[in-house]
Amino acid sequence: MQLVTKEEPRRFAQIWPSEATGEWVVREGTLGRAGKVRETGLSPNSTPIEQLAAPYRAKGFIEVGEDGYDHVVIQFPTRNSAYDRRHIAHATEWVDAYLDERGLGYVDGYDRGKRANDGRIVVNIFARVKDGELGAVAAMAALRKGAADATRATIAYRTADADEWTLRYERSAGKLPGPFSL
Predict the structure, then answer these.
(1) DSSP letter string over 137-168?
(2) Does pTM surpass 0.85?
(3) Partners of 114 in beta bridges
């Protein structure tokens, strides 16, 4: 379960059963920053998830539906098929981990194809996040922390209720000229 507040500073709480112990685990913190994890000592068999969520809901936390998530796209110029596959595997793992530990969201997929505006081949990694700006910042942090060349990445986001993309990071290296486009 993923819960967030609407007021600033936005807070989050995540509740899930531990694969190792079978007990409920709670991660909470400020949206966009690494949260603190604690095991509750309670079993999903004896304690329903709503019982754990009740104190958060009383403080104004709500669940965000899929339609309320913003979109983030990380775009790289391609090199070769083998490199791109490795790059996608590593980058999606890093970005997904960063988004999750900061309560922001998850990687939703990827593609390798031609940009609509100029036909250049690119790799796109897609993420769904609770806050587009914070999601773009976390994605860049993940690329910098991992072995990806973050200077080759262009990162843009779009809020759930908008059609226009906001460019957050523009590639500063690489051979892919022109503005961001899917």
Answers:
(1) HHHHHHHHHTTS-GGG-EEEEE-TT-SS-EEE
(2) yes
(3) 121
85: three-class secondary structure by DSSP: helix
Task: Confirm if 56 and 33 have CB atoms less than 8 A apart.
Answer: no
Residue type, 170: E
Question: C-alpha angle with apex 72: 56 to 144, nearest 5 degrees?
Answer: 95
Cα–Cα distance measured from residue 113 to residue 126, given in angstroms and rounded to the nearest whole number: 13
Region of residue 100 (left: phi > 0; alpha: psi -120 to 50; beta: else) = alpha
Q: Which of 152, 148, 155, 156 is nearest to 175 (CA)?
A: 152
Beta bridge partners of 30: 11
Q: State the angle between helix axes of 81-101 and 132-145 in degrees (0 to 180), rounded to the nearest 10.
A: 120
**Which pLDDT tens digit goes with each residue over 110-153?**
998 888 777 778 899 999 999 999 999 999 999 999 877 778 88
Where helices occur in 42-168 by DSSP H, the ranges are: 49-58, 81-101, 132-145
- Report how far residue 65's alpha carbon sits from residue 110's, in angstroms, rounded to the nearest whole number: 22
